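[Q] Does anyone have a clean structure-token version of this?
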Amino acid sequence: MMIAKNTIGLLALLVVSSGLIFSASAQAADPRNGAIIYSKHCSSCHGPKGQGAMPGMPDFTRPQSLAVADDKLVQVLETGAGMMPSYRGLLTTQDMLDVISHIRTFQ
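[A] Here you go.
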């Protein structure tokens, strides 16, 4: 009886865990989509390779410019910063995460 309860509990844990894994992978950032969005909305100021096309723009090829958690970068994209406009309502959070994953490839 105890073995059956442990087996059922283990199976339940595996089912829940596999659901979480699939859920997380469905939300993974897509740098290819991020490249498309970056090209359309970001490259004119930040440059096609992320080195900054305008004075004062961060150089995304330098590690210290992206030494911030993704959620903080999403906040910057949502609210804007300096000359950069807000992208809230224009890009989804997933789009923003895709852009962030793309700019992280510049390093």
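[Q] Thanks! Anything notable?
[A] Helices lie at 2-26, 31-41, 43-46, 70-79, 93-103.
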